[in-house]
Amino acid sequence: MFDLSETVSRVESCSVAVARRVAAMLDLDPGDIVEGSPLPRGWHFVLLGADTRRSALRSDGFPGLGVPMPDLGLPRLVLGGRNVSYLKGIAIGSEVIRTSCIQSVKPKTTNNGPMAIATILHEMRTLPDLELAISETQTYLLLPAREGVAIDDEAAAPVTVSDDWSQTVVPDETLIFQFSALGFNSHKIHLDKAYARDVEGYPDLVVNGGLATLLLTEFMRRDLCVAPTLLQARHVAPLFCGRPMTLAAHREGETWRVRAFDDRGRLAIDMKVDAG
């Protein structure tokens, strides 16, 4: 049994300086960011960072999920999915109270050995009214150590996407570093190529799941003029540094289907979006 009773609360500042750095990372004009304007949806990742002491980092460098995690002897951690509800705008220059807690930790046994599924809830409330602005549930997979060499790095195949709207982006080392720095995420699979290859078994640095989600929400905001009220994302395959990722979207009745494909045309992220 695990103690799921602990909730961590902290005040986070949605400062102009931080928002301008996010804009610069996305190659937008930081001068367009002004105090009092609404924080673009998806940019709240800067409010989810954990200030974990270096001596308390996991062996893979991951700073944690905002709350203490039980030691299950499972050294690898990957993002499985996230659900985000946007209930109220957060003004740039304001402060929010963020609360984080572990909703569940479910150990499992599979053909590949033991694993666990951890579900973490983050809520952000505006000050001084304490109204709920954003609720985000993240699901992580805790996995055993990987044996063997890096995943085979085959030649890329052409990507064909039949969605109504599509766009190709290439997350490079600079973008991955800047996103990791803004979120204070020191997971080695995003920063240390030798670790990603020799320990985790990936062919290159892994694109942050949060960064890939941000690129999808920016695609919706800037190209489709869509403001999500609810998004439900499944992360089904990794994306790698320096390789084109294709963002694609189409409408399904009252909702949007937004997806990310890797350079071989494989589905990496599948997202269902309700828009206001």
Automatic annotation (TrEMBL):
SUPFAM superfamilies: Thioesterase/thiol ester dehydrase-isomerase
Cross-referenced InterPro entries: HotDog_dom_sf, Mitochondrial_HTD2
Protein name from the UniProt record: N-terminal of MaoC-like dehydratase domain-containing protein
